[in-house]
Design brief:
143 residues; two-stranded parallel sheet; 2 strands; globular
Amino acid sequence: MVFGEIDCRIHIYYQYRKNGERRAIDELVGDTVSNYGEVLEKLRNLGVNFVVYGVPPATEVRNEYRYPFYASPEVHCRISNIFNERLKDLCSKMDYPYIDIHSRFSDENGFMLKESAADEIHLNGQVVDFVKGELNRRIGISV
């Protein structure tokens, strides 16, 4: 399961500003991860076998979609870091397999490594090889 990148890049900060900054970013991230947790629990109850991996590191992309509220790269990076930590904690508590791509493909400031970027937002094929290896190592799936 891969989710949360667009939340971290756009929606969380947008909601924060749209609602007059009345709810903290940490709280909005927590609510978003909690909602994803509910979906994951439903999937587990249906017998679906899944692995979760976190959002990729932030980049320095600007507001190409022209949202009225768009986080600076530094705030985007902070949101992504919080999201990944909360998602990792949820997966640990619920015993969901989690692949941490963020720490593997980010620099010391939490931004995407230049050599791992396919463009201004997405990781390149290095992430595919890494995830394939993790799927094999963690749950024995060879893809």
